[in-house]
């Protein structure tokens, strides 16, 4: 009974010996062991029921009570037991068999370790390295091309090749293969933090403690030795959900809604109103079967994150080229002058006689009596105009106050007549800002300036001997101007780059108020509808941060966005138009995602310099647009389809593919 405290008494129970190396053969054969059990040497100990004991001159039976107690016949006269049995064959106990197996396995392991140490991958060549006892499997193709051939296993496993002591140390110390990854791979943030960044408390992770964010390991997601064709980059959605608080079982069900205004983060660099072109300009100017479509302008062959448009010559020139070449910039003009600021004797000395004076002198030399040459005393009042914005800025005078600019104009024109281009270069260099006269005045002939100044001081218009028809520097009677030669004219671009920042540069330099006003006038003139080349009609002017500010401080400046600016990459987000274009067909179903927004005040977005304050010409794209295809049983919707784990992944070493050493292929081996 369970309550019998004496149930294990020697009189009721046999003594079990679990550590004894042998068990009774009768127990193994038919489950009835003898009371004595085997001897320690493995021989049978149950041939007799007991070992009689001699007490004085008598032998006494010593059979235990649990086996039945003393037998009725008692011992034999010679002291042997009267109960004789044939011997059994004791068997090794389970404990002994396990010990033998464990010992054998330990010996095999030690032997294998010694064998491993004797056969390293370096003892094999090329693909035969996989035969090494140390090789857990072939590396992926990207890694095998340099790891085994350059530094071998030590490329990733630092302890390899350093001997048994280093290996033993590696077993008991923290070492990670991931630390070797950064010898080649670079990221836009800390390599061992989640997404290579440090997020604040709103990062959306299951825990925002620093310890959880600051330690990740490459081998958590990327494991090698799976074969040359293995792709070790893919991750499963479950790996993403293990850290992010919001579990996304599938894109179509659980993914958060896209941000308001997605994917438009800023206005474009080119002011192209899709609504007006498709609803007004194209129908008005072109027949219905000739009207452009999306792919007329956008190059689907280069489709990627965006679908870039073609060049100006391909898309725009047929309508807009004339609007560029017919808008000039007047560099200097003959201003309205109520008082003549020029000394005619000095003018005659510098410029020589006028054509009329030459004719007068010739007639007198021939004995005639010609009329005296008279200058038009109202010439400056009849033909004069306001100072041009560039000229007003160079002179530092208001363009409409002839009393203020009278004397500076007289000095300036005389200097031009004497030295040509040099005085203008000096005045531009004195203007605050990055004027760069070598760019602003590129191609301008100093002789043109000298002759124009002389003619104006002698109260005459000046026309250049040969008229330019393709644009460039030219004289137009009472002005010298520049007309663009075509799109992307370098001189026109130089004037815009200078003018847009001229007011800020003047203020920063502490210039006089009049200089600041003239800088603003130049900026306004160029950015207006009649500005040089009409560049601002299409090209946005945007405020940006200048990293080259004095003292290492960032400063804001304006930049003309001359070229098409591709869509900026979003961290951790990747998208490719290519597969979508191939699936839907180029140009046929673009409006599936990109829907025009006729209610947006698109033009107002370009009347200021803040690129983030804008009204896009297209409606935002919502998640429901994507789930038309990316849903269960249709198109894949895993996290890695659109998201990238790493921030700005790249390389910090030159990856040169090396030819793996191998036997040369022999003709016919591949069935050829």
From TrEMBL:
Top-level division of the source organism's lineage: Bacteria
Segments crossing the lipid bilayer: 101-119
SUPFAM superfamilies registered for this protein in UniProt: Multiheme cytochromes
Keyword entries, A-Z: Membrane, Transmembrane, Transmembrane helix
Gene3D superfamilies registered for this protein in UniProt: Cytochrome C3 (3.90.10.10)
Membrane keyword on record: yes
InterPro entries: Multihaem_cyt_sf
Name under which the protein is recorded: Uncharacterized protein
Organism: Minwuia thermotolerans
């Amino acid at each position: 009974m369970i309550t019998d405290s004496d149930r294990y008494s020697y009189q009721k129970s046999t003594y079990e010996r679990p550590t004894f190396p042998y068990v009774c053969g009768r127990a193994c054969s038919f489950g009835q062991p003898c009371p004595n059990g085997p001897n320690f040497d493995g021989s049978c100990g149950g041939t007799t029921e007991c070992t009689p004991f001699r007490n004085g001159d008598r032998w006494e039976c010593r059979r235990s009570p649990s086996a039945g107690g003393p037998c009725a016949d008692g011992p034999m006269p010679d002291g042997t037991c009267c109960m004789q049995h044939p011997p059994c064959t004791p068997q090794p106990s389970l404990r002994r068999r396990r010990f033998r197996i464990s010992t054998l396995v330990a010996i095999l392991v030690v032997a294998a370790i010694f064998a491993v140490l004797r056969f390293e991958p370096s003892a094999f060549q090329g693909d035969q390295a996989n035969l090494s006892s140390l090789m857990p499997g072939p590396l992926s193709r990207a890694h095998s091309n340099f790891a085994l051939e350059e530094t071998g296993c030590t490329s990733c496993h630092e302890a390899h090749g350093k001997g048994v002591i280093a290996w033993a140390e590696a077993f008991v110390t923290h070492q990670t293969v991931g630390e070797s990854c950064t010898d080649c791979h670079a990221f836009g943030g800390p390599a061992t933090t989640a997404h290579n960044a440090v997020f604040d408390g709103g990062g959306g992770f299951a825990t925002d403690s620093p310890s959880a964010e600051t330690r990740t390991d490459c081998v958590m997601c990327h494991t090698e030795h799976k074969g040359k064709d293995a792709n070790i980059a893919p991750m499963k959605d479950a790996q993403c959900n293990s850290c992010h608080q919001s579990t996304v079982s599938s894109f179509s069900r659980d993914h958060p809604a896209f941000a308001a205004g997605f994917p438009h983060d800023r206005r474009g660099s080119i002011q192209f109103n899709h609504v007006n072109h498709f609803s007004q300009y194209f129908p008005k100017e072109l027949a219905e079967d000739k009207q452009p479509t999306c792919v007329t302008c956008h190059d689907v062959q280069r489709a990627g994150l965006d679908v870039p448009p073609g060049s100006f010559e391909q898309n725009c020139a047929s309508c807009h080229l004339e609007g560029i070449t017919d808008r000039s910039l007047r560099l200097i003009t003959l201003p309205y002058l109520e008082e003549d600021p020029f000394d005619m004797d000095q003018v005659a000395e510098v410029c020589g006689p006028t054509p009329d004076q030459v004719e007068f002198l010739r007639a007198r030399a021939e004995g005639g009596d010609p009329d005296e040459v008279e200058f038009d005393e109202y010439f400056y009042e009849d033909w004069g105009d306001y100072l041009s914005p560039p000229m007003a800025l160079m002179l530092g005078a208001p363009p409409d106050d002839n009393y203020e600019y009278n004397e500076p104009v007289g000095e300036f024109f005389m200097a031009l007549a004497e030295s040509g281009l040099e005085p203008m270069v000096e005045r531009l260099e004195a203007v605050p800002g990055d004027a760069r006269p070598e760019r602003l005045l590129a191609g301008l002939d100093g002789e043109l300036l000298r002759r124009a100044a002389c003619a104006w001081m002698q109260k005459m218009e000046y026309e250049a001997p040969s008229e330019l028809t393709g644009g460039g520097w030219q004289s137009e009677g009472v002005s010298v101007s520049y007309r663009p030669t075509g799109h992307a004219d370098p001189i026109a671009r130089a004037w815009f780059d200078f003018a847009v920042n001229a007011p800020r540069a003047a203020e920063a330099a502490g210039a006089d108020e009049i200089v600041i006003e003239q800088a603003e006038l130049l900026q306004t003139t160029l950015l207006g509808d009649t500005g040089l080349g009409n560049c601002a009609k299409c090209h946005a002017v945007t405020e940006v941060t200048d990293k080259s500010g004095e003292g290492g401080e960032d400063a804001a400046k304006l930049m003309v966005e001359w070229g098409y600016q591709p869509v900026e990459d979003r961290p951790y987000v990747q998208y490719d138009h290519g597969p979508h274009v191939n699936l839907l067909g180029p140009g046929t179903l673009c409006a599936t995602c990109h829907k025009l927004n006729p209610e947006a005040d698109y033009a107002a977005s370009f009347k200021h310099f803040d690129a983030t304050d804008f009204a896009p010409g297209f409606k935002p794209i919502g998640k429901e647009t994507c789930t038309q295809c990316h849903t269960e049983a249709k198109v894949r919707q895993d996290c890695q389809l659109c998201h990238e784990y790493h921030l700005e992944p790249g390389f910090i070493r030159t990856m040169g593919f090396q030819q793996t050493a191998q036997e040369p292929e022999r003709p016919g081996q591949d069935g050829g």
